[in-house]
Amino acid sequence: MRPIQMVDTKNQYLKIKERVDAAVLSVMESSQFIGGKVVNDFTNNLAKYHGSKHVIPSANGTDALQIAMMALGLKAGDEVITPSFTYIATVEVAALLGIKPIFVEVDKRTFCIDANEIEKAITPKTKAIVPVHLYGHAADMEPILQIAKKHNLFVIEDNAQGIGNDYTFSDGTVKKTGTMGHIGCTSFYPSKNLGAFGDGGAMFTEDDALADMMRMIASHGQSKRYYHDVIGCNSRLDAMQAAILDIKLEHLNEYIDARRKAADFYDEQFKNHPNVEIPFRASNNNHVFHQYTLILHDANRDALHQHLADKGIPSMIYYPVPAHRQKMFEAFGGNEFQLPITDWLTERVISLPIHTELDEIQQQLIVNEIKIFLKN
Ligand SMILES: *Cc1c(COP(=O)(O)O)cnc(C)c1O
After folding, report:
1. Distance in Å, CA 130 to ligand 1 centroid
2. What's the CA-to-centroid distance between 272 and ligand 1, angstroms?
3. Taking each helix axis from N to C terminus, what angle separates 61-71 and 208-218, rounded to the nearest 10 degrees?
4. How far is the CA of 296 from the centre of ligand 1 (A)?
5. Is the CB of 201 under 6 A from ligand 1?
6. Which H or E element spans position 45?
7. Could you give the CA distance from residue 87 to residue 62 in angstroms, rounded to a whole number?
8. Which residues of the chain form beta strands (DSSP E)?
9. Is there a contact between 166 and 176 (Cβ–Cβ < 8 Å)?
């Protein structure tokens, strides 16, 4: 049996090796390494996939979030409302710009920001809400967008883990995550559902002016070459990554289906287990299972993690420390936030291997070891 990995990018690559190798070689031969047709083709295809007007490439997902906040004119002293139960990049970029993250609770079932907790966190300084589609489950965007509209706030979706998820509004309208807020941001980090062979990211928007502003910021604030209108940064997706991503984009729905199939198998195995709570799937969205994350009840999570490691089975704790308890946020008053659900989840979640190359023999082994440990 192949060794079990959290993600298996190698075997995924081998299935499309011929096309990927040819595409990379062709970029080398063209020596158009930055920008150009290959990057434009990919961003156009990604826009089409999302039904989105503009896709602006960036060097990574963290930059995408930072450029989004800059383009919306967020500045030092402003506040953004975000979950604490997320990857640090979401809130780190706010702090980097001097913006104060106001951490709110997540919904215990979806792991995403609890829309009911947002309004009480709004102050005159609040400028934006930054929901995160964590693990591939969509945040409940309909009420979030309503609150944003009512209070005149921007919405920046962190879609690094949610790419491909279809969210259904109560009137039946379906939209892809990342295309509902003013700006959506995503990451092509290799382990993400649409992963490059290096770093990459993108911003999505329907707004022409915002698209222009983000393009300008990502390119040293240039309106035309060597004319710099605003303070920007340097954040580019290179052509080799775009060439690879364009091929992988054709397979994205198939990759998502493979993840869902693996999730269905785990669900079936654990659904009646007294110590294990399987991931919730809200009926208004179509989970893309970037992670398959269990909540353990009355069990020693860290000992299970170790037990699996001893058996050669990887598992991960996403994330062992929530953002508001990170040392980096001490100066931002992180410890003043009372987030018992976030703390509770942080102590109980464990993510199992999930990827496009996982087979049922591997999954059965993982399940068996977990059941042996839990003695059920
Ligand atoms: C991966 C990730 C990011 C950052 O993306 P990078 O490309 O690694 O910079 C941001 N937010 C979330 C939720 C992520 O999972």
Report:
1. 13
2. 33
3. 120
4. 25
5. yes
6. helix 37-50
7. 10
8. 54-58, 79-83, 100-104, 126-129, 154-158, 166-168, 174-176, 183-187, 201-205, 222-224, 227-228, 276-277, 292-296, 349-352
9. yes
Ligand 1 center to 351 CA (angstroms): 17
**pLDDT of 1 higher than 90:** no
> Does the Cβ of 332 fall within 6 Å of ligand 1?
no
**Is the distance from the beta carbon of residue 289 to the nearest atom of ligand 1 less than 6 Å?**
no
CA 187 to ligand 1 center in whole angstroms: 6
Sheet holding 349-352, edge to edge: 276-277, 292-296, 349-352
Residue nearest atom 10 in ligand 1 by C-alpha distance: 89
Instruction: Among 189, 197, 199, 291, say which to mutate for ligand 1: greatest number of ligand atoms within 8 Å of CB.
Output: 189
Domain 9-249 and domain 252-375, same fold? Reply is no
Predicted TM-score (pTM) of the model is 0.97
pLDDT grade for 160, boundaries at 50, 70 and 90: very high
Parse the chain into domains and list their residue ranges: 9-249, 252-375
**pLDDT tens digits for range 191-238:** 999 999 999 999 999 999 999 999 999 999 999 999 999 999 999 999
Which residue matches tokens 């954040």?
A: 235
CATH for the stretch 252-375: 3.90.1150.10
Which pLDDT band, with edges at 50, 70 and 90, does 332 fall under? confident
User: Would you state the structure tokens that stand for residue 123, as one six-digit string?
Assistant: 């102050």
Query: 9-249 adopts what CATH topology?
Result: Aspartate Aminotransferase; domain 2 (3.40.640)
d(CA 376, CA 62): 41
Q: Which pLDDT value is given to residue 311?
A: 96
Q: Atom of ligand 1 at shortest distance to CA of 86? A: 13
